[in-house]
Amino acid sequence: MIRRPVDTGDPDRLYTVTGGRSRADDAFDLVTLVVSECRPTAGMQSEHVRILELCRHPTAVVEIAAELKLPITVVRILLGDLLAMSRITVRQPPPARSATSSLPDSAFLKEVLHGLRNL
């Protein structure tokens, strides 16, 4: 399998899309789920329109970037714009449970063992 370099897009285009901004909103990581809260309106930037259309159902930031074929940083800047305008809501996925957190408490297990021995 031949690996191709990732196309990050034309720098001039990316500069235009972000309005020259390079600092992304920290509220968005790769798995943050984004949901549209409204429909696109006339005069909106085309990338904002596309994001609102994509996010009718919860969609991860990484999926949005893949669909738009834009770098994650650029997508995070655009999402920050939409969040500031209250056009989207974001949901962080629940933290992953570790294997040890799903195990019963050791004191409980000792009580069960003691009860079984008494049978």
Share of β-strand residues:
5-15%
Strand order of the largest sheet: 2-1-3
Distance between the termini: 62 Å
What percentage of residues falls in helices of 4 or more residues? 40-55%
What's the helix-strand series? HEHEHHEH
Main beta sheet: strand number and arrangement?
3 strands, antiparallel
Number of strands: 3
Gross geometry: elongated
Radius of gyration, in Å, reads: 22 Å
Give the overall average pLDDT: 80
Helix count equals 5
Low-confidence stretches: none
Instruction: Give me the secondary-structure category.
Output: mainly alpha
What would you note in describing this structure?
There is one protein chain. The protein is mainly α and 119 residues long. Helices cover 42% and strands 8% of the residues. The chain has helices at residues 11-17, 46-54, 61-68, 72-84, 106-118; strands at 33-36, 59-60, 88-91. A three-stranded antiparallel sheet has the order 2-1-3. The longest helix has 13 residues, at 72-84. The relative contact order is 0.17.
